[in-house]
Amino acid sequence: MIAENKCLPGDVFCFNSNTKTITYVEEELEKNEGILALLHEIAHLKLGHYSYNYDVELLKLEHEAWDETRKMAMQYGIEVDEEHIAECLTSYDLWLEKRATCPKCGEYALQRNNNTFGCFVCDCYWKVNERKDREVRKKIINQIKQTGPEKIIIGFLFVCCSPFLG
Ligand SMILES: [Zn+2]
Ligand SMILES: [Zn+2]
Q: In angstroms, rounded to a whole number, what is the distance separating the alpha carbons of residues 106 and 119?
C-alpha cells in the first residue's frame, strides 16, 4: 500500500491534499492502530478529499474516511478498533467546538467563512488559526471584510487523531 500511494515516513499520520501525499509513522506500523491510521489516510486520498468550505464538511469527510477505512480493513483482514475511531472523531468534534465557541460570551457561533466565525448573541467576530495539529487560537476582529465569493480551501492537511486536537 505504501508503494502504491504517495507515502512518506514522518512524525504524524496525515494527508496533504495539496501534494496528495500521505505521511506515516514508520514504527507505528508494527501495531494494528498504526496500520489503521495509514488506511485512514489512504481513504482520504482514495475518496478525493481535496477541498472543503466549512468545518462541518471537514467532520463529514472524517466520517467518510473512517467508513472507507472499515471497508479496506475488512478487505485486508485487519482488526478495526471502533473505540479508537470514536476517539478520533470525538477529538475532531472538540476541535471544531473550540473554534466555534465565542471567546466573549461562550455561545456556540456560526462559521462565516473558512477561518472566520461570528456570534449572534454578542456580535463578536473572530479568526481561527488553520493548523489542525496546533491548539486552537482565536483572534477577535472588528468585522468580516470579505464580502466576495467564499474562499475555498483547496489545500489542507488532515491530521487525524493528533494529540493537539483534544
Ligand atoms: Zn458571543
Ligand atoms: Zn482523517
A: 9
- Grid cell listed for 161: 487523531
Contact yes or no for 69/39 (Cβ under 8 A): yes
Looking at all shown ligands, the one closest to residue 14's CA atom is 2
- pLDDT for 112-146, tens place per residue? 887 889 998 998 999 998 776 667 889 998 876 55
CA of residue 139 to ligand 1 center, whole Å: 13
Whole-number Å distance, alpha carbon 124 to ligand 2 midpoint, is: 31
- Please state the domain extents for the chain: 7-102+152-165
Report the separation in Å between the CA atom of 42 and the middle of ligand 2, taken as the mean of its atom positions. Answer: 9
Threshold 0.70, pTM exceeds: yes
